[in-house]
Amino acid sequence: MNNFAMFFQDAGGTSLIWSILPFVLIFGIFYFLVILPQKRQKQQLQDMISQLKINDEVVTNGGVIGTIKEVRETSYVIQSAEKSFIEIGKQAVVGKKETK
Fold it and tell me: What is the phi-psi region of residue 55: left when phi exceeds 0, alpha when psi lies from -120 to 50, beta otherwise?
C-alpha cells in the first residue's frame, strides 16, 4: 500500500474522508440555516440605514421612536417628543416605523 493510501486510512480501516464527512455536512447545514440568513438580515439593515432621510420615523435599539430631523456623518438627530431632540448613532437604529 502506498503512503498516500495509508494516510487516508485509520486503524479501523475506514477512510479519513468518511470520518470527516459528517462534520462537513453539519457545518454546511449550519451555514445555510444560521450564518447566511444573519448575513442577509445585517445587509438589509445596513441598506435601510443608508437610505434613511429627514422626516423618516425610526425605532432605536433602546426602544425610542422618533422622527429624523438632521442627518450627520455618523449619527442622526431625532425628535422623540414635542420638544425633545436626541442625537443617536446610526448603528442604534434597528428599524423604520411604518406609517399607516
Answer: left
Query: CA–CA separation, 93 vs 100, rounded Å?
Result: 20
Whether 61 and 43 have beta carbons less than 8 Å apart is answered as: no
Poorest-pLDDT segment among 19-28, 36-45, 76-85, 91-100: 91-100
Q: How far is CA 86 from CA 18, 26, 29, 79, 91, in A?
A: 59, 46, 43, 6, 14
Grid coordinates of 66: 422618533
Identify the DSSP state of 78: E
| d(C-alpha 73, C-alpha 52), whole Å | 12
Which residue is listed with cell 425628535? 79
Angle, alpha carbons 39-56-82 (nearest 5°): 130
Beta-bridged to residue 95, according to DSSP, are: 59
